[in-house]
Amino acid sequence: MGRYAIGLDYGTLSGRAVLIDVATGEELASSVYEYPHGVMDEALPNGAKLPPDWALQHPSDYIGVLANTIPAVLKESGVNPCDVIGVGADFTACTVLPVKADGTPLCFLPEFEGEPNAYVKLWKHHAAQDKATRLNEIAASRGEKWLGNYGGKISSEWAIPKLWQVLDEAPQVYAAADRWIEAADWIIWQLTGVETRNSCTAGYKAIWNKNAGYPDDAFFKALDPRMEHVVDEKLSRTILPLGSRAGVITEAAASLTGLCPGTPVAVGNVDAHVCVPAVGIDGPGKMLAIMGTSTCHIMVDEKELQVPGMCGVVADGVLPGYYGYEAGQSCVGDHFAWFIDNCLPASYYEQAKAQGINIHQFLRQKAQVQRPGESGLLALDWWNGNRSVLVDADLSGVMLGMTLQTKPEEIYRALIEATAYGTRMIIENYREHGLAVEEFYASGGISQKDPMTMQIYADVINMPVRIAGSAQGPAYGSAMFGAVAAGKAAGGFDTIFDAARALGRVKDTVYTPNPENAAIYDKLFAEYRTLHDYFGRGENNVLKRLKALKAQSKGNA
C-alpha cells in the first residue's frame, strides 16, 4: 500500500494540485483550475468600476480549486483517497480578506457584494500605498525597532496597510469583519474547520515576531485610534510554526474534494517559501528565486540581520531553526505579458502562425540571437512598482535608448534583462550588508520554459543557475509539508529537513555564465544601478509626479 501527499498551490491566475508518492517523490498527477473571476483590477463582478492600483479576487474561485483539482488528481492517479496521508497548501501573499467568525467572506453577503473592500485584496493590490507611507513615517518617528526587520519599510502589499485602507474607506466592512485573514490560512480553515495562523505570513506580512509578538497596541492606536486593539479584534496571537498540523479534513471538505475525513492538513504557507525544501535547500548561502508573474527571492541564514530594502527576516519563517529572508520583484512574468499583449504588430502574430509556433516562442527566437548591449536599450523593471530594494509602489517603468530602428524583440529582451538586473540589485544588497549569496536556484514557470531568460540571468548575476526538479515547485513543496503534517509514523516525515533531503530535487540542467556576456552585463548593470538610484531614491521624483498627474486627470475625467 502506497503513501501519498497532495500539495495545493494558489497562484495569481489559477490554482493547482499535485499528488506525489511520498516514498519516491514521483509526481503521479497534477491539475490546474483557472480562476473564473481572474484578477479583478478594473471592475467588480457587478460591473462597478475600480480605481487605479486595485487588484481583487473572489474567494469562490479558491473553493473551485478544491472542488476541481483534488478530485482530478485522485482520478488521474487512481490512488485510493484514504492512502493520501497529508495535504498542504500555499498562496501568493500578502493576499487577505475580511470574513465573519465562521469564516464566511464578507463579499458573499448580499449587503457587501458591491463593496470593493469586502473582497480579497490580492498581493499586487497597491491602493494602500498612502497608508503604507504613513505607517512607515509613524513607525520611524516612534523608533519602532521591528521596522528594521522589514528593510526599513512596510510595503503597501502587506496586511496592515490593506486593513487600514478598509477601515478608512469602508468602516462598515471593517466593523462587520470578525477576522482579517490571509487566504493561505482561510483555505486551510475551509479544509479543517479550524482557524489557524501560520508563522510565515504572520511574520512577513503582518509584523509578527516569534520573540516579541506584534507591535504593541499603542503603535496601532498611533496609526488610527480605531485600530488600537486590531490584533485581538481582527487578527490572532496564536501562531503555528510551519510544518505543524492545522487539523484534519472535515466531512464537508471530504464531500467537496473526495479525500477521506481525518486526513492531516498542514498549516498554510507562502508559495515562494514553501518551494525552498522542494529544491533540496536545507541551509544558508543559497538563494531561491520563484519566477512567475512576480518573483520572490528566499534565503535562510543562522544570523539575523537588518538589511535595508528586504521584505523581511523572520525566525523560522522558511525552515525551523533559521532566519528566513525574503526579497522580491513586483513585476516579472506580468512584465513580459504586458508587452506581448500591448506592443506587438500584427505581422509578428502572422509570422508566428506561419511558423506554427506561439508568439512567446517567436519573440524568443528573434531575441536570443541578439548580443548583450546590441540593442542599445536599458530598462527599469518597475511596471508594477518596486518591491525590493526600494519598497515603493509609486514607481513606474522606464525604457531608455530607443531609436527609429528599435525592434519589438529588442524591447522584449531589454525587459527581460531589466528583471535580471533587479535580481542582481537584491543579491548585491544582501552581500553589502553581510548576507552571503553563494548559490542561485530558480523555480516557477519561467525557469522551466524559458532557457533564454535563464541564461540571461546567469550572465547578469554571474552565477550558475540551478533549476527546480518539479515544474510545480510550490505545489510539490506543499505536498512535502503535508507529509510532515502526517508524521513519520503515518508514512511521512517528522521534519521538513527529512523531507527536503529525501524528496528535494533539481534538474541536471545548469545555466553557466558566459564570461564575455557577463563582462558586458557588468557595464550595463552599472548604468542600471545609476538610473535605479536616480529615479528611485529621490534625486528625481518625476515618476511619482507623473503618477500623481495621472490620478488627478482620471479623477477630473
Query: What Rg do the Cα atoms give?
Result: 23 Å
Number of helices: 20
Strand order of the largest sheet: 14-15-13-12-18-19-20
Low-confidence stretches: none
- Determine the mean pLDDT: 96
Termini separation comes to 66 Å
Please give the share of residues in helix: 25-40%
- Give me the secondary-structure category: alpha+beta
What does the largest sheet look like? 7 strands, mixed
How many beta-strand runs?
Answer: 20
* Outline: globular
Strand portion: 15-25%
What can you tell me about this protein's structure?
This protein has helices at 59-77, 129-141, 159-169, 171-176, 183-192, 199-205, 217-223, 230-234, 251-257, 271-274, 333-342, 346-355, 359-367, 408-432, 445-449, 451-461, 473-486, 496-503, 515-536, 542-556; strands at 4-10, 14-21, 27-34, 56-57, 84-91, 96-99, 120-121, 179-182, 245-248, 264-266, 269-270, 286-291, 295-301, 312-315, 323-329, 378-380, 398-400, 439-443, 465-468, 506-511. The chain has 20 helices and 20 strands. It is globular and about 65 Å long. The chain is of the alpha+beta class and 557 residues long. Helix 12 (346-355) crosses helix 13. The strands form six sheets. Strands 14-15-13-12-18-19-20 form a seven-stranded mixed β-sheet, sandwiched between helices.
Fill in the keyword field for this structure.
single chain, 557 residues, alpha+beta, seven-stranded mixed beta sheet, five-stranded mixed beta sheet, 20 strands
